[in-house]
Amino acid sequence: MKIVQTHEIALKRGLEHRGGTFHGRIMVEGEPGALDNFQLSFGQMGGDFNSPRHRHNFEQIRYQLEGALDYGRDGKLVAGMIGYFPEAVYYGPQSQDPDVACKTIVLQFGGASGSGYLSQAEVQAAMRELREEGESRTASSAGAPTSRASAMSTAIRQSGNT
Q: Could you tell me the fold of the domain covering 6-109?
């Protein structure tokens, strides 16, 4: 059993690539690199936060603590509601009332594809590899992936989605 005192975990800025303000606390995580990796986090969005229609290669369950998040044609998630966001299913765009801050608990974990869930550190490592690949293509970076993050960056590069 693990008990986490969330007030002892500092809020960190995140999702800078999205519009607006987002801060989060990672409350509990699984083992990076493991297929059964997961993350349970607390998110606090400023009224200016927004996100385009998109999908993930993992699953999410969200519990809305405060405020309401509007997912466009998919509906609104209001305080007290739970939302299930299956792997590979598009949702959004996400917006909210600019005068109301929202607080959400989010559980993220691998889905039916078996690709697992990449930790933030693994995603950041893959993004660094992609940046380096774009700056200098070397024989060593063209070799076989050495980690799940490397495999992810290789797959993104080969698909042309960089």
A: Jelly Rolls (2.60.120)
Among positive and negative, which fits the CA dihedral 104, 84, 56, 124? positive
How far is Cα 115 from Cα 94, in angstroms, rounded to an integer? 25
Alpha-carbon distance of 125 to 127, in angstroms, equals 5
pLDDT digits (tens, 9 = 90+) for 59-78: 999 999 999 988 888 899 99
Report the 10 Å Cβ neighbour count for 113.
Answer: 11
pTM summary value = 0.76
Residue 151 dihedral angles phi and psi, to the nearest 5°:
-60, -40
Domain with CATH 2.60.120.10 in the chain: 6-109
Quick one: 59 exposed, middle or buried, by C-beta within 10 A (0-12, 13-18, 19+)?
Answer: buried
- C-alpha distance from residue 57 to each of 33, 142, 148 (Å): 15, 24, 14
3-class DSSP assignment, residue 120: helix
